[in-house]
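Annex B. Sample input.
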Amino acid sequence: MFLFEGKGWKEGDYVFASHPNGTYRDIVIGMVTGVEESKIGVNGIVVNAVGLKNKVAQGKAGPQSEQVLRSPNPKEAVFALIYRVEHDNFIGVFDVKKDPVVKLNKIMYTILTGWIRESIPEMINNVISLPDGPERDQAKRVLKQRMDTLYDKDLKRYMYSVCRSLKILN
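Annex B, continued. Sample output.
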């Protein structure tokens, strides 16, 4: 769907990877900046799914959530990105023969980086963590407003799909 198979790496390729952070792995989304044999330089963002880690630690998440934290992949990344996240710039090197690295197409790269840049995890988390009532209704209105103002049509479509599956749209 959004992933590329194949061995050839070149500068400018989009990447989804992960690297260890304690018991779990952080997500790296970036662009290849250099290639030397099986090693690729990557510049992008690193995402720590602290909200999902907290849910798992509290026993409020199932085995699929723990699997997403132990072995993140682009198809299930949304499970880590619907709760609060922390992110930072990332510059590093991966060995594609040893490290979990997947090529992304431009659309998926734009969706995932836009999801983080636009603070969507925090907005969704605000809705799903509040009990029914006026505060939750207000959080839903804020989320819907943000969704309606997104310029990237793929990100908007993806966000609507996720919100529908979470049953947070009226």
